[in-house]
């Protein structure tokens, strides 16, 4: 994989047309004739010619569509060195190609050339100026390249414009990285990252997970991100740097399945706390999805895929149209996605629970969906216009409409059909104003909304008469206005001291209603914030000495005032040390803050249910902790505890980044150690040994200190039961012949509450190698996450409970490797994915669960079907997910939560999936 740390806004980066995700070019200054490449480019717009050159030469080219607008390139044919080919393409312009760090070519205006009248005064790539800079003064090539690459972008994890601070671990995946991985949707791509845990809210479960109460509120089967396994709520999701409205019945996560992959320019993944920049929710990290906004021409794509065993098929079609002109651009992308359901009948090797008794025969496996049927339509509109030489305006709109249908049944033979719709709209308007002294002022107003509707119908087996029919509607909205100024504050001996200062006002609202019954949650939250950041160069190019080439300090902080949770101040400190060129060592410390989701903070759904305890014992093969309890009834409390506290955390990271190039060979390595302590994290009380909540009475009877006081109550008095029922916000459910008069156990373990502490420590490692030979370009990469420790503690008086290497919890080792090759328009990528072995629980009777290793293959060939413009530049791709058709490891099934015999948090039931795609640009 390519991990780019600085990218330019309003720039087009040409990469391999082969979609070879990890390949980079050999050094641009290489004079060996063997490094010459065959070039065949038709006459046409210069921007199109530069992208075609980048694809054929395998050489990244960074340029602005506005800079190249109005220029044309002549036909170019021959075997040339990249720099010679670029020189010919630019020969009739006032532009030149500058070789930048890492083999990147940057297109800029020649020094001393006057701008043509058709080009606005404000250059697309703003070069920050220092107090003693002089107009037209020459700068070292690498410095100029860095400035051009930086442009005015805000990289995730900083408020500073220009080059991003490198004190936090940041991974960046561009458009070709995503498409080259063979995935169909962006949530599939995020799920494959080793730093992301597949637990939380996802389409792989129908009722949710027994150890994750939030996942049970995912009634539209949306897809969440879950960095570090700290829950969907702990990862902040942004679109072009702006917040999105959350989804689900409690509004706890952003639905990734509403983001069209065809419209993405890149994805930036920050695996570090970032509340000092973004405020609440950025506990485990930030994922920022950057939309394409500077594309000239048209791109049509059609993808069809099918499992090789079963009936599931899917289609993805997209159309992108873009136009750039002097001082502006406009882009539109439409994407259509349609996928069939995957049923248990398609995967008979996956085990399933038995009926509750001989009286309950399970229905046809074709009525048990492992993956639901989905359909989505998405539209993206983006535009930018320079109003004056110093002022530019931009606007972005994303609209998605997704519908889902799912069938499921439990141990009692009840079949549940659910259909849902999720409609998302995001609109952002921005303005950038150049200020004297190289400063930049930015103002952005954004609005995001989600409208969900779910219809659920339950029938007994295949009877057409429903005995339960419900409808749920959810409204979620986020308004925000951000203002920011940034620039060089003063010039220090080691370089400019960069600073940024900003403010934000935000309003969030949420409502969830069960129509004809009740409102389960409704509330609003107002937030006002001030934030700032400085990057202080202590040692730089002018003050470097042996063993100390660079030393930089990054300080940031944010003060948030919440209408319902008071104020929160969160700082972050980062330090970077480069002892020699090509090697940097970094570290950071930060604190984060996350108020409860609105659906939790304003929840009115606390309730309970009673059923005979003997039924529970028989259903799960348990023995009563005390014989006298067997003939009594069992009360389970559900919902959210009142008077919740905000979640807080502190994060330490230490890491390194190294790069080495020798001739055509390039190596890159990056490693990070992290230590996160999460206080007052919302969740249900952890059960020792990874067991389910129904085991809590047995554990509490043997060891009362295993849970916080009051978690499990034996033989409650009538007064205790009456006081508890008085706190319910919904009527209590009484099942079978149970009665309040016979309650012998009260189980509070499933109540969502603030836990005392969650801690996790681990290591990330990324390795990349690239080379160019006469046999083609080769690349290899490795992305690894090793969790050293992961524990949860319900209260200060209870022991820490391990939450790793057991069923439905993270495994300690996840690895994704990549091997690539490209030559003459043909490319191949092979990905290897590995999840370590673990076990069902932490007891002596635990059953081992095997490791799972799969391979994904992606092949791409440039083709030419005819002379028409839309047929001359086409790419034909074949991708195979799970190449060797490895079934997920067998696990116990769970009829209560509708879980088949595999672990949906660490594996997938998809098995081998083959897709073919044709993509044409013209």
Any descriptors?
922 residues; globular; 12 helices; mainly beta; 9% helix
Describe the structure.
It is a single chain. This protein has about 900 residues and is mostly beta strands. Helix content is about 10%, strand content about 45%. The strands form nine sheets. It has a 22-stranded antiparallel β-barrel. The protein has a five-stranded mixed beta sheet with strand order 9-12-13-10-11. Strand 10 and strand 11 (about 240-245) form a beta hairpin. Helix 1 (about 45-55) packs antiparallel against helix 3. Mean pLDDT is about 85; it is low at about 1-35 and about 110-150.
Uncertain spans, ≥5 residues at pLDDT below 50?
Answer: 1-34, 111-152
Structural class: mainly beta
Task: Please report the distance between the alpha carbons of the first and last residues.
Answer: 27 Å
Number of helices: 12
Overall pLDDT confidence: 85
> How much helix, percentage-wise, in residues?
under 10%
What percent strand?
Answer: over 45%
